[in-house]
Amino acid sequence: MEQYEVSQALLGGEAPMVHEVRGVIARSKGAPVELTTVVVPDPGPGEALVRVQACGVCHTDLHYREGGINDEFPFLLGHEAAGVVETVGPDVTSVAPGDYVVLNWRAVCGQCRSCRRGRPQYCFSTHNAVQKMTLVDGTVLAPALGIGAFAEMTLVAAGQCTRVDPRARPEAAGLLGCGVMAGLGASLFTGEVGLGDSVAVFGCGGVGCAAIAGAKLAGASSVIAVDIDPRKLELARQFGATHTVNSAEQDAVEAIRALTGGNGADVCVEAVGKPSVMEQAFYARDLAGTLVQVGVPSPEMRIDLPMIEFFGRGGRLKPSWYGDCLPSRDFPMLIDLYLNGRLDLDRFVSETIGLDEVEEAFHRMERGEVLRSVVVVSS
Ligand SMILES: NC(=O)c1ccc[n+]([C@@H]2O[C@H](COP(=O)([O-])OP(=O)(O)OC[C@H]3O[C@@H](n4cnc5c(N)ncnc54)[C@H](O)[C@@H]3O)[C@@H](O)[C@H]2O)c1
Ligand SMILES: [Zn+2]
Ligand SMILES: [Zn+2]
User: Fold this and answer.
1) pLDDT per residue over 107-133, tens digit each?
2) 232 CB less than 6 Å from ligand 1?
3) Nearest protein Cα to ligand 1, atom 11
4) Which is the closest atom of ligand 1 to the Cα of 366?
5) pTM higher than 0.90, yes or no?
């Protein structure tokens, strides 16, 4: 990794420091990812430069690569990360160099109408670093979820850094940065799972297994895991599923009704991102039950529901972004649960890999072989 000053004459002002680091980019739709040199500026006002230690591979990175999120290629991928703050912008007081942090993709503004009403977890104006990371030729990179952490260093808004207990190893702690938090929060916060609830979770990847762990933490009496892959159903049991349903072999809605006294589940969590699964989760609810949508749909997806079914069942349909978490409140608390042995983050780490193995990790994800491949960037 190099550090140099860009010629002052070139910029016509004070020379900012930039860093050349290795990072993983998706250059164009569907093309294999590339490990290349990324230029990262020093932090300006409100920003923090973070030395990434570990970053999980999330399905959303693959969605970016496939053009399923937007067309702003090239992307700097990676967004489930933990690391150490290297430097901060002149006005930053919330974090300092040397702090061990988990990165989040919803730095709340504190000023929008949602924040002002005391609901910062729904902040309507979350923000990222203002300065851009680029390729060596100056091409601006779009960092995945405003993070871009498959890189030795990344530039984020200071509010995207949440300090946590440094005894938590980065491979595990970083996972709170996206998928695991999204799943835990889908049960704990969006679904408001309570003591004695019955819960069904559709899709038992990293996100779904976290939703299962969240339902268990919240005191659900039964947690039904639904997947088409028996390996995932086995993992779901390890995270606390009390029953499993292989929906490639049986009708998920009927199976869930049979397991809940003919009624359906109080809370159904969709953690796949497919219309057919969303419909199953809708119909598998008990009366007045809650459907939580966590799986990310692509723009062309549609579902068709008779309005009378929507009305007649009552209850709630709730999309869940990031598990409706508030990183400053939830990350330190969940890390404490991890360190106290109450939340098994280590079990999500199927393997650790290098920055040059992200493309292969996507294939392993597609083949269903892993919950999370975690890129270890530096120790
Ligand atoms: N809402 C959020 O804030 C948020 C955050 C992170 C990820 N996500 C999304 O959550 C979803 C899951 O992410 P992941 O990382 O766990 O992915 P994953 O690929 O690891 O897991 C998906 C699981 O769904 C299963 N599956 C596939 N088709 C199915 C079907 N028809 N019925 C039942 N199960 C089926 C697969 O076998 C797999 O176990 C993705 O869409 C991802 O983009 C959402
Ligand atoms: Zn806000
Ligand atoms: Zn993610």
Assistant:
1) 999 999 999 999 999 999 999 999 999
2) yes
3) 295
4) 19
5) yes
Is the CB of residue 277 below 6 angstroms from any atom belonging to ligand 1?
yes
**In which element (H, E) is residue 309 found?**
helix 307-313
| Cα–Cα distance for residue pair 47/13, rounded to 1 Å | 20
User: Which residues have a Cβ under 8 Å from the Cβ of 236 and sit 6 or more positions away?
Assistant: 201, 204, 208, 209, 212, 225, 227, 244
Beta carbon of 295 within 6 Å of any ligand 1 atom: yes
Q: Bin 208: left if φ > 0, else alpha if -120 < ψ < 50, else beta.
A: alpha
Q: CB neighbours (10 Å) of residue 253?
A: 21
| DSSP 8-state class, residue 119 | -
Q: Residue 345 in 3-state DSSP?
A: helix
Check pocket membership of 193 for ligand 1, CB cut-off 6 A: no
User: Ligand 1 in contact with 185 (CB < 6 A)?
Assistant: no
53 backbone dihedrals φ, ψ, rounded to 5°: -100, -45
Q: How far is CA 328 from CA 14, 47, 109, 120, 342, in A?
A: 34, 17, 13, 10, 20
DSSP state letter for 117: T
Q: Please give the distance, rounded to the nearest whole angstrom, from the Cα atom of residue 168 to the centre of ligand 1.
A: 26
The bridge status of strand 316-319 relative to strand 285-293 is: parallel
Check whether the bond before 143 is cis (ω within 30° of 0): no
Over residues 315-354, the pLDDT tens digits come to: 999 999 999 999 999 999 999 999 999 999 999 999 999 9
Give backbone dihedrals phi and psi of 19, rounded to 5 degrees, phi first.
-125, 135
Instruction: Compute φ and ψ for 182, nearest 5 degrees.
Output: -60, -40
DSSP state of 375: E
Could you tell me which residues are beta bridge partners of residue 290? 267, 316
- Separation in Å, CA 56 to CA 149, 174, 178, 256: 9, 7, 9, 32
Buried b / exposed e along 62-81 (16+ C-beta atoms within 10 A): bbbbebbbeeebbbbbbbbb
Ligand 1: centre distance to CA 217 (Å): 21
